[in-house]
Amino acid sequence: MDDIVAPRPAHLLLREETREAHEDTEASGGMRRLMDGELDVAGYEALLSAQLGLFEEWEADRAGWLADVVPQAGWSYVSRASLLRGDLAVASGARSYTSRPVEGRAPPVGASPARDAPAPAPAPAPAPAPVGASPARDAPVPAGASPAGDSIHYSATCWGELYVIEGSALGGRLIVRRLRELYPDRDHRFYAIGEEAPSAWRRFQHILDTQLHDDASRRAAVDGARRMFARFRQTLMEPAAHV
In whole angstroms, what is the distance from residue 80 CA to residue 203 CA? Predict the structure, then answer.
């Protein structure tokens, strides 16, 4: 009798299938210039503003899923848009900023949602300019659309998108050290989010494995992750983000 080969865990499949997209995103012009110290303060603020537009749109599109499915699965999402608004508020001198996101009382990454309510979804903001063209397989899902009109497929796609967002916190721990050298007077709460709970990534990977339990859901998650990488890549290449 032939041995039955168990399918790869979802988090490993996502890592392997999006490796190239991940590397391309890390090599984007805006991020490269940031890490090379080629951006002045205005350029850094423009980079934050560009990412704020992306997260305001994504969090508004996925608000229901973030408030319902994610905490039921055992995860608490911290609003990146709130952290970015806080960093930009400090940059503009509009207000002082503490370690708490601007909107709501979001728990730290990896907090137990069984007892901690998820961060409130930010109010919808005017949508930024549509994400630019990208390879056909990486084309973003239109705002607010369900990828196939199917709730299970839709949720799997969202998990793939969240995989990219939560995974970026790991890289953020390296980025924030560089930012503190370049811009020592800033809080850098957005990029420092991964420092609050560095071990949470393993728990998130386990949640992915339990939520993406069949081949169809894993493939939908891979597609969602690739699209999210494409959105990040386009955002980081926008001229306004790295002039």
Answer: 19
